[in-house]
Specification:
- The protein is about 35% helix and about 20% strand.
- The chain has helices at about 25-40, 75-85, 105-110, 140-150, 160-170, 180-195, 200-205, 210-225, 240-245, 290-300, 315-330, 330-335, and strands at about 1-5, 15-20, 45-50, 70, 85-90, 110-115, 130, 225-230, 235-240, 270-275, 280-285, 300-305, 305-310.
- The strands form two sheets. A seven-stranded parallel beta sheet has the order 1-7-6-5-2-3-4, sandwiched between helices. It has a six-stranded mixed beta sheet with strand order 8-9-10-11-13-12.
- Strand 12 and strand 13 (about 305-310) form a beta hairpin.
- Helix 5 (about 160-170) crosses helix 7.
- The longest helix has 16 residues, at about 25-40.
- The termini are far apart.
- The mean pLDDT is about 95.
- The chain binds guanosine-5'-monophosphate and manganese (II) ion.
- Manganese (II) ion binds near residues 28, 118, 139 and 171.
Amino acid sequence: MKAIQEIIPLLATPRKVVITMHQKPDADAMGASLALYHFLVAKGHSVQVISPTNWAQWVDWMPGAEKVMNYEKEKQAADELLENTDWLFCLDYNIFHRTKYMAEKLAAINCTKILIDHHREPDTPSFDYGISDTNKSSTCEMVYDFIKAAGEGEKITAAIGECIYAGVVADTGSFRFASTTASVHQLVADLKTKGLDHEKVHGFLFDNFLENRLRFIGQVLQNRMEVFYEYNTVLMAVPKSDLVKYEIKTGDTEGLVNIPQSIQGIKLVALVIDRDEERKWSFRSKGEFNCNQFARKYFEGGGHFNAAGGRSSESLEDAVKKFQKAMQENKEQLQ
Ligand code: 5GP
Ligand code: MN
């Protein structure tokens, strides 16, 4: 994989471009994709953003979201675009299988593939150009860096700023995680001078839910949360019946895994949700516990050091048993 800087001179020639992100895109994946979209369109390229799946309503407000294709709904048209594209950008994921049903197509097409991502263990041989930097707060920050490195900072509009800011806020836990460097704050200051309305973005991201979601969180904290003080660990196991009862939709469970981190001394929080096709895990840790390694070893997943995800194919009950065993095996690291 060649350095991302090497494609900057090639930006001058208009090209057909497809931008992709991981399945069930969050604010960072969607924000980075749309920020890059607006920039490349302004540079004269012909650009389409494709999401592997649907996304949460709390990213729907982003400028350009209405033009994003959902691969699961528009496979044929999306495949055609992919087969004919010159460039493929891969944002906020680093291995094709994170794009679910799109993965096979992405691996098969013959075009220039460009990675911009901040997760661990990238599949670099799959990409022609790119940057993979786990020290970066967010892929949005990396898209910002890319535009600045291209010497095109003046092309960052208020719309691009909203997309970038949303991803930075989401992936830094509103500027609290260790990844929130001085550069992150400088980026925000720069976006402010370009017209960013940060209050509006916070409203869209955090004050944009229905009553049912809050009732659901109450139910989970009251009845589905177990604290293992001996292991400084919290587990929340959410059965399908809760999702049905509270009419939970894509995105409604975002942020839930962070709440138990407010309990004194907790090092690891695990959330498992009984989805139709799999039991989906989220892990969050503080300090020295490596969630990426834990998710990879036990739950076919990965991510970052302090935030990762994974899956189990067995029943919720068996997935929980597996977790408890894994927790016991990691007793030393958790104490
Ligand atoms: P979340 O818990 O918010 O869904 O995910 C936390 C982090 O782990 C995100 O950066 C996400 O991209 C990553 N992640 C979530 N699920 C998976 C997975 O199944 N495999 C891998 N490799 N990463 C994941
Ligand atoms: Mn991200």
